[in-house]
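Can anyone check this?
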Amino acid sequence: MKYKIYLKNFPRNFLIKYRSQIGMVVLLNFFISIILYFVVDKEYVSSASILPNSSSDSNPVANIASQFGYDVGNQTNQLTDPLVLKKIATNYDISSKTLKEKISIDGETKEIFFFLFPDYDINNKLDFENGILKLGQNHLYISKDLEGPIINFKVITNHPQLSFEICSIIFKNTIQYVNRLDQSTKKEKLTYLTNRIQSVKKELNEKEDVIEDFLIQNRDINSPSLQTEYNRLISELGVINQLYISLRTEQEFKRVDLNSDNNNNIYLIDEPNIPVGRSYPKSSNLVSFFIQLNLLCLGIYCLMKVRIKEIVD
């Protein structure tokens, strides 16, 4: 069984025959587009950009490990991954500090929470939890450039000053949080290196004592078996000594990095800015509204004329 879909009584000179009606519809759609343009909620975007430090300083310990076929993994700092930054920026601590921060907009001073959610109660636990959730879902966006490593922070609200204040607070607190975590990680690594160095140093001394005892017990090592054993002990000593030197070198790097006042992980590209104009709606959105309304009217007219006819073989 086959069916045919066609337009019933659709005139070929449609535009000419119904030009007055079409003109009225187009004019009506134009006015509706203007109304939508001014009625729809305005959006203002404040943004900031950072560049994670992607410099890959050679890791001496990793170099030694690679010589023996071991892979110590990627040394990239995961704290500057956009997904991790978004998780940090929207955690309870930073979000609650942001919403409780008092700012002044148009002569009115109150918590950011009330500017974003005027119908919510900050003292109501459920309202406050919903506010934190909506802050991360509807107002804060963190993404990485498609063409490079730059990471962008964006805050969208219905007021330029509000967007700027929220972006500044979240941006500052997120970077500080990342720095604290990074400092803590560096301290843990430094502690590990210190303990490991002591262990390797003890092993190095023990190996030197073994070689010394071997030479005392075997004054004549011209025999192949003794020479092979001696070479093996010397080789093991060299590996341990090289590991000790590498660990000490890594320890000094970590100490300098830990005691440095400069932020070695994140470079600031753009600070949070006050939006000079709205990001939505724009003039292009007015044109888009107008075109979509006209296409919608044309689609409705065509649907009214559509007929389905059964084809009998």
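Reply from J.R.: I decoded it. Confidence is low (pLDDT under 50) at residues 67-74.
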